[in-house]
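SEQUENCE-TO-STRUCTURE ENTRY
===========================
What this section holds: a protein sequence and its matching fold, both as plain text.
Question of interest: how does this chain fold, as expressed in backbone structure tokens?
***
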Amino acid sequence: MPDDSINRPPRTIMRREFLKAMLVSPWLVPESRSLQSALLVGNTSFASFARADASPQGLITSNSDFFVRNHFRTPQISSDSWNLVVDGLVSTPLKLSYSDLLLANSVRRPATMECAGNTSGGIGVGNAVWTGIPLADVLKQAGAKTAATAVILHGADYGTGEGVPANTHFARAIPLERAMDASSLLAYEMNGSPLPADHGFPLRALVAGWYGMDSVKWLTRIELSSQPFEGYFQRQYYVALQANGERRPITRMLVNSKFLRPSDGEEIGPKTYRVEGVAWAGERKIAKVEIRTSQSTPWQTVTLAAQSTPLTWTSWNYDWHIPSTGKYTLEARAFDDEGKTQPDVRDPGRQDAYELNTPHRITVTVRP
């Protein structure tokens, strides 16, 4: 997507132009479960999910309304003293400053991010326009060695808690292949503004289409390795557990959907009501969305507002011709372009509380 597809705020343009005029050095400098269970560590707060703003990029969640999920306290980082180190199995270790990032060729693209422990229809999901450097560009500059298979993303946030070793930093590893994908970014802007502190200032990863824990915030180091990463938040958290003891890592976002209006418990008038919502499917496209207004009525296909694209949610609407007053339970489910849909019930064998994507269900009252 061209970098000028969305107008930048004047202050961002001015800062970048100033840096380009003043700095002549190259931008890369070589150098020798459920939300409840997640609350056991650190602080979790989800901002109220407001109606997202319409834009050419789809429905955009404002920075102030975008959910926040942190395991530890938000680091207070000065861009003047911050650096990003790229090392491990690389030919040329790198040390990048904030100015180096702003001087690099950037890309700007929308992407939907969801917390792995988001409940069905929950507020732990949002869609923003992210600006940054392709992660692949940095890894190519560093020169990944043949033996490298994993990219470990180290954050500045650290702390302790129930079961967490003292001074544990948050870190996650993704496969090198995924890191080299064009959709993986080192993001420093969110919706045209520098990253807010709670969202990773000065730099965060964006692993679009994967659950949010892999989009590590407050990045300080990118390490390439040939070994599976054994970090605490790789092995103890964000793992799908089966009753028979099987374990697998959680990575790609599952197909999901939610109502934006009406809200759960709302009272609405009779006649025709425009039901609205969003649906997303991670790396896949949304093929269709269905809703029903009671268990005894058939599923109805809704209208998608635009052609679906991978990595971002799609808005939808349905004109509900209400037959009578009373209470109704509305359900929404989405299908991706591989035919996968939201399961009617949770897999009873799951012992964790991640990947919760049963249909969103809300109850409304139709008044006379």
In short: Confidence is low (pLDDT under 50) at residues 1-52. Residues 256-366 form a domain with the Immunoglobulin-like fold (CATH 2.60.40.650). The two ends are 49 Å apart (CA to CA).
